[in-house]
Amino acid sequence: MTTSTRERIVAESLRLFADRGYAATSVAEIEAAAGLSPGAGGLYRHFRSKEEVLASAIREHIDRTRQQVSEVLDQAVVYEDRPLELRLKMTCQAGLAKMREEQDLIRVLFRDLDQFPHLVAEMREGIVNPLYDGIATWLAAQPEFEGIDEDWPAIASILGGAVVNYWLANESMYEPPTRIDEKRFVASWARLGLGLVNLEKSTTAS
Prior knowledge:
By secondary structure, the protein is mainly alpha-helical. Helix content is 72%, strand content 0%.
């Protein structure tokens, strides 16, 4: 599929914002990275300002996130016959992959978006909350958890937060917390999820 000029501008601007910072990236640099003549005003044929480019990048990621969450929930039924531990591992791995996919946007969020609170709000409502809501919905839909009276949104915030923290620590400090590699992290994350079943059994027995 051929990438349009607009798509190139959005992709390259986000990469440059992540690497250099929003303020330090000029329109001419974005144009050059997108294959346009730098300083010739090619960006302004598609966007009114540099801020509008950033907003467009965020909204494209929001649209993709909504689609991904929907696809994951649709596939939940497909994998019902697999062991719960494996399903949990797959979910954790998908979360880490999503963090890697959004790494440029996350860097921009922490570095520059405090000057654009309306864009922070869009990210929160369009990307962050839907991901946590998706985890909660996925957990509640698993057959092994049927009938378990749990606060799934709160549990999702804990399990999802663990994924976010693990990735952020690895990204910002160049190694995972206490050097726990990803395979061990995923396995332990899944075992915590399995513990919900055992917790319900012990509660019922008592």
